[in-house]
Amino acid sequence: MILDKVLPPTWHNPTNASKYNLVVLGAGPAGITAARQAAGLGAKVALIERKFIGGVSLNVGCVPSKAIIRTARLYAEMGAAKILGAQVPADVVVDFQAIMERMRRLRTRLSQADSAQRLSEAGIDVYFGEASFTTPNTVEVAGKTLRFRKALVATGARALVQPLPGLDAAGFLTNENVFNLTERPRQLLVMGGGPLGCELAQAFCRFGSHVIIVQNDPMFLPKEERDAAHILSDALARDGVDVRLNTAVVGVRLDGTEKVAELVSAGEKSSVHVDEILVATGRTPNVENLNLEVANVQFNTKNGILVNDFLQTSNRNIYAAGDVCMEHKFTHAAEASAGAAVTNALVFGRRRLSKLQIPWCTYTDPEIAHVGLYVAEARALGIPVTTYTILMHDVDRAVTDGEEDGFVKIHVRQGTDRILGASVVARHAGEMIDGVSLAITSGIGLQALAKVIHTYPTQTAAIKMAADAFDRARRSSLLKFLSRGWLRLQRRIGYGGRR
Predict the structure, then answer these.
(1) Residue 470, Cβ neighbours under 10 Å: how many?
(2) With 78 labelled, which of 275, 366, 444, 451 sits at a CA distance of 20 to 30 A?
(3) Which stretches of the chain score pLDDT less than 50?
(4) pTM higher than 0.85, yes or no?
(5) CA 141, 53, 118, 24 torsion: positive or negative?
């Protein structure tokens, strides 16, 4: 049972130490990473969690969503079996209860790695309860006062739900309760075209729900490249999602057992009747009830805790990491920032937040992944950019897999092979982007990537193909330069010894 790992019913908080080297508030990915790293350095560490060990990622985020996305992809593949020359019975039945039970089994299994018991065995004092600062160097939890030399706030973020007439009365889902469903909604409205909204809209549509996705903006994933967002929009429509862009939900009411959402698009009003409404309009940092003012820690409710480039707050003995202070709210970003914060706090490190090269991926089908600068960002900084693009329908393995939608784009500083950023749209984009992320972090240029031998056939060959395109362009430029020089020399000396 997962509660035995993430919130043991018989757990007793430890006897607190006289003083801790590090007190960590929040036992999500950032908090666990920080506590384990600090304990590994020999520090006396306290880890405080108000709810469940593992935080959003394990309990209501990455783990459960990716589990059901995998099953949704399988159903989609069965539906497209004829394209691949296979035959599947036409009456394939979606067992939603089995899908959700599998997700919960996997969540329980993965909870074992960082259970309360295992963290305690690693030398970490694990406390359950609401934490709040009582002075700039003390925290209270469950009636106990913990004194610290350094503290790290890693309390994460939660679903952002904007006030909307009738929504509370009608009831709604967020990532925090959608995975508790035991019956598949026949009609589902998804509010928000960010990563979570797009991922779950596609998954539930593939399970057989009639899904309507509403997005205020003219395109999904507004921060991504426009052609990437267009591919995603087309993919959702092909799956059967009812896509409503440039559309806002202005009110909700109940009509018997159904929820009725009032929509406005280009001044035109309409309404949709659904069983459930999933709100996926963003996330907001958890900064309430921590008494941060008492600790002299500056924050605001929109951006969370304010930190410098070393993840240090306005109280030089208190640091922050993860979703509570970062724009990029990803598990891997939280873990990376936590590692940097602990190094800076305990061993006089100077690791900078701005130096972390953070890739990300939206796990739709196809996936959309990115790392580094976008072209618009580079141009805003006055950096000239050259882009090398490979379409996935030119990649042999993508063709044989029947996964031709998408592209690889690698941006370099004009006149050099220095990689500034990359975007990948492909079935396995999340896996593919890591190679480019490694290259950027290690200072490896695109010319060097052209020398890497890839196994054939793979979809990651698209990255080498982009590197090869750069190499051909470079060689072509060099050859043209040399040939012009040679011809100019010929004109000077004449041909055949004659002037």
Answers:
(1) 20
(2) 275
(3) 497-499
(4) yes
(5) negative
